[in-house]
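P.,

For your records, the input lines for the assembly:
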Amino acid sequence: MPELPEVETIRRGIAPHLIGRRVESVVVRQPRLRRPVPAELAEHLDGQPLQAVGRRGKYLLLHFPNGTLLIHLGMSGSLRVLPGASPAGRHDHLDLCFEGERRLRLHDPRRFGLVDWQALGTTHPWLARLGPEPLDADFHAQWLTQQAAGRRRPIKSLVMDSAVVVGVGNIYANEALWQAGIHPRRPAGDLAPPELVRLVEAIRQVLQAAIAQGGTTLRDFTRADGRPGYFAQSLAVYGRAGEPCNRPGCGGRIEQTVIAQRSSYYCPQCQPAP
DNA sequence: CTAAGGACCTGTCGGC
DNA sequence: TGCCGACAGGTCCTTA
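Structure tokens returned:
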């Protein structure tokens, strides 16, 4: 479900409710996510005050004095801040109960999510090989050019590779390629320098616009308070197969195909095939 | 090294 | 109405 804009929206949503509060208890109802939730989570967290809520790619980072709790929401995960006594439903796998009757609840029907502990002063293996943040200055055309050089894999698959750049999932990869006028199946190494410049700019722009709208709600994404995100109405290609291209004067119709096992959308007019 | 495909899960939707 | 397959916002691991 969540790509970078959705995770950032959640980060901003939960932080003000929880920062400065101590964890009073941890409830694990279902430890079997993609990896088992560590059994000693409560020992790490009990009594610790939450100092900050960060994000690296699609990982949320809950910083405590003794370490960091990593949360990845996978395809279907969501987090809500709830009152202290909120009855749990199906797929409510984990609660962090904070002082002052605040409860952070992880809900994840598909259980592709991840939760793990990173001790102070260590780097978790999940974070060790991540590429630059797309909205930071070290994500630039020169970096993408270096990553694309000599690669035959489709450009869409390259920009979705978290070692190249983090946080770009299926929706925003499709959107950014449309905005840059690049066909998703083009071999990465064949892109011309101006195309790579445009693509970097498009990725930045699409992600920033989506964050400003609170992310994309297709079916079940909600912010920490339960509201949807409004970027869905700004999607140019994702989920729009058969509909007309939005580019003024284009007149193409959006097509759908599969690239690297993921649904891919593009306009055959303004994103010429390889 | 690169790239592709399966695996992990449940829910929903469309077709018959 | 009910069943069955396809598909869904992600990543890790194995295989070629």
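Two observations worth noting. Residues 193-212 of chain A form the longest helix (20 residues). Helices of chain A lie at 4-18, 41-45, 125-128, 141-148, 155-159, 170-180, 193-212.

Regards
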